[in-house]
């Protein structure tokens, strides 16, 4: 059997991302009728390596220190309570670490025991790259200090800002939908390598609206932005997110970026694919710029 047929049978694309990204793929008319562009972050606006090699390791190496320093604070206790609640829901899962009850008045021995359990619980959740709100809220709170002190700068692909500006100039709105908490999203774009980009976005959605693999989440987003799903274009690197967004009636396009998981032949056949936002850029003419506010087709 040929390599290609074998890969198709196994449902794996091998090096196809590179081969296919260099070849033709149909994205014509993708922006037609679109008045809202909804963007994923990791693997779409931002390299996966930034999340996996900078953001997540920061949490792993600072979680104990963060808990030690903020233990008495309401926000920290709320984060711990949310992790405890999530762990109870996960109690049947392999290797789950439960978080014992605690108060800020506990003796030192109890505090240390609970703190270690929280650290282990966070690491267990992160080992599985779980997208649960409790973990994402804590991560967002931890990254706050890292961004504000300049230890971390949000990475954004160079083709992202020019394309967004073109969409805005042609009367479209841009929203973010990421598993990272809304606070984490605002930090990434507020303290980005390209400066403060928050003014580009009309709003942000996270897992408090629902998981990205569930169709209902996309229906909720469409309702929240007051737009028919058919007029929303969702860009993501993950097929498990593309599928439910399409089921909800949105237009969907996959993004291929360096380091993203390879797409299968079937994915290439089923979805439009871009490797840079510049493929969806609007060349704004001076006339169109003067009539801002009108959605272009
Ligand atoms: C908002 S930055 C942190 C990204 C993150 O925590 C994550 O899980 C990535 O999720 P995405 O939905 O952007 O792929
Ligand atoms: Mg992604």
Short description:
With 297 residues, the chain is an alpha/beta fold.
Task: Jot down its keywords.
12 helices, elongated, disordered N terminus, 47% helix, 297 residues, binds magnesium ion, alpha/beta, 6-stranded parallel beta sheet, 6 strands, ENOPH1_eukaryotes, disordered C terminus, binds the ligand CSCCC(=O)C(=O)COP(=O)(O)O, Rossmann fold, Transcription Termination Factor Rho, Rna-binding Domain, Chain A, Domain 1
Please characterize this protein's 3D structure.
This protein is α/β, with parallel strands linked by helices and 297 residues long. Helix content is 47%, strand content 8%. The protein has twelve helices and six strands. The model is unreliable at 1-16 and 289-297 (pLDDT under 50). Bound molecules: ligand L4RZE5RM and magnesium ion. Residues 40, 42-44, 236-238 line the site of magnesium ion (MG).
């Amino acid at each position: 059997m040929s390599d290609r047929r074998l890969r198709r049978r196994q449902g794996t694309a091998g090096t196809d991302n590179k081969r296919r990204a260099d070849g033709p793929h149909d994205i014509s008319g993708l922006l037609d009728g679109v008045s809202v562009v909804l963007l994923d972050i990791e693997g779409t606006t931002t390299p996966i390596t930034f999340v996996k090699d900078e953001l997540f390791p920061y949490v792993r190496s600072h979680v104990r220190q963060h808990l030690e320093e903020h233990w008495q604070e309401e926000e920290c206790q709320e984060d711990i309570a949310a992790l405890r609640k999530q762990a109870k829901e996960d109690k049947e899962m392999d290797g789950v670490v439960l978080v014992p009850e605690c108060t800020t008045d506990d003796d030192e021995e109890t505090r240390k025991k609970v703190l270690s359990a929280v650290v282990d619980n966070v690491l267990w959740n992160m080992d599985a790259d779980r997208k649960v709100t409790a973990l994402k809220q804590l991560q967002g709170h931890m990254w706050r200090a890292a961004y504000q002190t300049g230890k971390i700068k949000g990475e954004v692909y160079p083709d992202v800002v020019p394309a967004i500006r073109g969409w805005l100039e042609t009367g479209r709105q841009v929203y973010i939908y990421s598993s990272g908490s809304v606070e984490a999203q605002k930090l990434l774009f507020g303290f980005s390598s390209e400066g403060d980009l928050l003014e580009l976005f009309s709003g942000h959605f996270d897992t408090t609206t629902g998981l990205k693999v569930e169709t209902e989440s996309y229906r909720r987003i469409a309702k929240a932005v007051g737009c028919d799903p058919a007029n929303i274009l969702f860009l993501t690197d993950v097929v498990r997110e593309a599928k439910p967004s399409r089921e909800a009636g949105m237009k969907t396009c996959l993004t291929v970026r360096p380091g993203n998981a390879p797409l299968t032949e079937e994915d290439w056949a089923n979805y439009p694919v871009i490797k840079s936002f510049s493929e969806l850029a609007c060349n704004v003419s001076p006339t169109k710029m003067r009539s801002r506010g009108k959605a272009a087709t």
